[in-house]
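Q&A log
Question type: sequence-to-structure
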Amino acid sequence: MKLSIVIPVFNEEKTIEKVLQRVAALKIPSVTKEVIVVDDGSTDKTAPEIKNSKLKIQNLISLQHEKNLGKGAAVRTGIQASSGDYIVIQDADLEYNPQDIGRLMGEVLRGNAKVVYGTRLNRLPNFSRDERKPLFMLHYFGNRFLSLLTSALYGQWLTDMETCYKLFPRKAVLNMKLKSKRFDFEPEITSKLLKRGYKILEIPITTTPRGYEEGKKLNTIKDGSIALWTLLKYRFIE
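Response status: OK
Response body:
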């Protein structure tokens, strides 16, 4: 079985090399992998870092947008270039541990699911660590609300619809008209997978959240509002 790991990246010069190294080091029994990194018009030193990594890492496909189009657009470019049986999304910062991809893929190999999400939120808020700052607490409850809404609208319980770690069959999205350009990619693909009859298995993962001063790009209010509209739109309109 072949796995395509799609990495959208924008201005991540400090982390992209380490992320690519960790992804390259990932070993999954019975699975070959290709790594597709999409530079979404970075204006820092991300492009040279990717170029240097390409010289060291086998099966690394490097693509580039001339200008910044958004995470969703970069993921769509990566999906179009993929050739694996399965696709998983990997962020270009160090919040997510690529070793968890092996755990997600293990559920597929054991026949437990065709779509697997890594959930960060199958827990109460951690006021001593992750949610100790107001912005992260807002982020936590916003995600929980959107996940609850997804569950109510589409008839399957989810705890973390907004997670980066989404593993799905390539054939599930080959003819799927994905339109999102920004972070609304998360609710769009979730909505369309559920409407196509795919059941989503969630398994717990741990993350190391970074602050906005470290480069976090998600705007909880703005992007959360867009996600809310996206869930409603694909349930009732499209």
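Response note: The chain has one domain: 2-236.
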